[in-house]
Amino acid sequence: MSDHLTRQEDTIFGRILRGEIPADRVHEDDLCIAFRDVQPQAPVHLLVIPRDPLPSLAACNSSHAALLGHLLLVAARVAADAGLEGWRTVINTGAVAGQTVFHLHVHVIGGRPLQWPPG
Ligand code: AMP
Fold first, then answer.
1. Considering the domain boundaries, does residue 119 fall inside one?
2. How distant, in Å, are the alpha carbons of 1, 51, 72, 76 from that of 116?
3. Which residues line ligand 1 (CB under 6 A)?
4. Over the stretch 17-37, which tens digit does the pLDDT of each residue have?
5. Which residue range forms the structural domain that includes residue 61?
6. What's the CA-to-centroid distance between 77 and ligand 1, angstroms?
7. What is the CATH number of the domain that holds 61?
8. Is residue 51 part of a domain?
9. What pTM was estimated for this model as a whole?
10. Which ligand 1 atom is at minimum distance from the Cα of 92?
11. Count of the separate structural domains present in the chain
């Protein structure tokens, strides 16, 4: 089965959650944390990740509906806290779509004009 469909306890984001490697955190609560992407694609590039090590959106089901809604609301909050008037939220799902870390994450990207469609 693909990586993004199976449970992955130990990714680099798992290590960030456990405090084993540093991250520039901008938000944390009982369900998720948000921190700056180490390779920013724009002046503001944040990642919102659940504490639950779900590998991807494809691994979610109706039991995760509240968590997924919470991640989006936190994405909007950290974007506004960063001073953004508009931003892009991205969830890459599966290697073919560019996912490289198999722990669900929402990218929040802004601070420059963004083109559409993306590559
Ligand atoms: P994706 O390609 O959608 O899986 O996104 C993974 C993101 O995680 C990339 O934008 C990476 O730059 C970012 N990333 C990888 N390792 C770290 C890290 N240690 N701290 C912060 N961001 C990271």
1. no
2. 32, 31, 21, 20
3. 12, 23, 37-39, 47, 92, 98-101
4. 999 999 999 999 999 999 999
5. 3-97
6. 20
7. 3.30.428.10
8. yes
9. 0.96
10. 3
11. 1
